[in-house]
């Protein structure tokens, strides 16, 4: 659907929903079927197909990825008096979900090249916390910008420490690590279908697991923890976290188109790589080994000493051309709301925040818009040679 409505935006954004006729068709079908809310056959089908795609036995469709993380952490035993280890380089939702449970988030830094949780530093953190008698309920590796964390090494470290993994795969649906799909790692994994993600239900998420007891309990907790009684008996606090059937219709249509959307994002990344090729001091972030990534967002990393300009200079130039770009996630240990929280740092996240810039990466970008972005980038680089 092209944006021809009054007030339609001309600004080129980082990542917007990519929807069309198929979405309209399935949402219409959901409406006509009478299955509007809360649940329905399209939720069941969506869960089945996502579980299948991610190599999981069970999937529970929820109202957001944050809700999925929250329920996964509750079931891992996160509660007041425990700690949850979270990468410092992530979106705030990962840490927020830990705080919802009453647990303390503990931040661990990343590897410079991938931006993902540094397994060696994770091991140091877990050893230190154990020596201090801190109970760690879970470690939450994040698949940053659609690059899977090094789940092989993270799992080994966590197994040695006896700590379960809750994988934050909000950004990585469709990516792979060691021949396994994103979402297949950890005791549980969380997906997000927020509007800016690789595919969207306008808002939504999914909890994935192989453990039937975890899936059953997630369904129960996400529907206000109702006991099976006609009068709504409650023995614990629940949440209103389920996904509606209408939104699942969007998800089913998006899932059919997921591979095509990933291919378009990958092509866009290749175009960026070509434009910056040979330019001193700038490279495409996560470029090496990205054949297994879903290329959700493409970023460049700028070394100002070599390039003679900064990521902020580029951001300002693109902004002047009505093109959105954004620094990589501001690390959680630098966020005012998490000031003073325990952190294990190596400097990589701060460096990436200072030097990284995410660029328009959405699969809904038209060829014209891609042309506008590539021209603006080329012009900037020419002016700064
Ligand atoms: C988007 C995102 C989330 C949250 O997902 P919502 O569906 O927006 O609640 C969690 N973690 C990461 C890393 C994300 O990018």
Automatic annotation (TrEMBL):
Similarity annotation: Belongs to the DegT/DnrJ/EryC1 family.
Active site as annotated: 197
Alphabetical list of SUPFAM superfamilies matching this protein: PLP-dependent transferases
UniProt-recorded name of the protein: Pyridoxal phosphate-dependent aminotransferase, enzyme apparently involved in regulation of cell wall biogenesis
A GO MF term: transaminase activity
Coiled coil: none
Keywords assigned: Aminotransferase, Pyridoxal phosphate, Transferase
Pfam family, one: DegT_DnrJ_EryC1
Keyword NADP in record: no
Gene Ontology BP terms: polysaccharide biosynthetic process
Keyword Transferase found: yes
Cofactor(s) listed: pyridoxal 5'-phosphate
Classification of source organism: Bacteria, Bacillati, Actinomycetota, Actinomycetes, Geodermatophilales
Modified residues (N6-(pyridoxal phosphate)lysine): 197
Organism of provenance: Modestobacter italicus (strain DSM 44449 / CECT 9708 / BC 501)
């Amino acid at each position: 659907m092209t944006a021809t409505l009054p007030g339609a935006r001309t600004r080129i954004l980082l990542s917007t929903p990519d929807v069309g006729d198929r979405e309209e068709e399935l949402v219409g079908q959901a409406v006509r079927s009478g299955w509007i809310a809360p649940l329905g056959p399209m939720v069941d089908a969506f869960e089945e197909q996502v579980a299948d795609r991610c190599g999981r036995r069970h999937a529970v469709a929820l109202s957001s990825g944050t809700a999925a993380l929250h329920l996964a952490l509750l079931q891992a035993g996160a509660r007041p008096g425990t700690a949850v280890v979270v990468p410092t380089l992530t979106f705030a939702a990962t840490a927020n979900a830990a705080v919802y449970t009453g647990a303390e988030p503990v931040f661990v830094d990343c590897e410079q090249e991938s931006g993902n949780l540094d397994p060696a530093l994770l091991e140091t953190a877990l050893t230190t916390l154990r020596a201090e008698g801190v109970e760690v309920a879970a470690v939450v590796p994040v698949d940053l910008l659609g690059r899977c964390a090094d789940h092989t090494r993270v799992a080994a470290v966590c197994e040695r420490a006896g700590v379960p993994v809750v994988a934050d795969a909000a950004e990585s649906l469709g990516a792979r690590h060691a021949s396994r799909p994103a979402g297949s790692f950890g005791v549980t994994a969380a997906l997000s279908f927020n509007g800016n993600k690789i595919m969207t239900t306008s808002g939504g998420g999914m909890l994935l697991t192989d453990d039937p007891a975890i899936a059953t309990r997630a369904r129960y907790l996400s529907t206000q923890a109702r006991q099976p009684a006609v009068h709504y008996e409650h023995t614990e606090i629940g949440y209103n976290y389920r996904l509606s059937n209408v939104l699942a219709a969007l998800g089913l249509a998006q899932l059919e188109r997921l591979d095509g959307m990933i291919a378009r994002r990958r092509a866009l990344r290749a175009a960026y790589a070509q434009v910056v090729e040979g330019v001193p001091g700038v490279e495409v972030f996560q470029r090496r080994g990205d054949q297994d990534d879903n290329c959700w967002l493409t970023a460049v990393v700028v070394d100002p000493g070599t390039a003679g300009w900064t990521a902020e200079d580029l951001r300002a130039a693109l902004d002047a051309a009505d093109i959105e770009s954004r620094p990589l996630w501001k690390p959680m240990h630098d966020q005012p709301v998490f000031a003073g929280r325990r952190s294990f740092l190596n400097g990589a996240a701060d460096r990436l925040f200072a030097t990284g810039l995410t660029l328009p990466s959405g699969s809904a970008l038209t060829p014209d818009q891609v042309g506008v972005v590539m021209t603006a980038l080329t012009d900037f680089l020419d002016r700064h040679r």
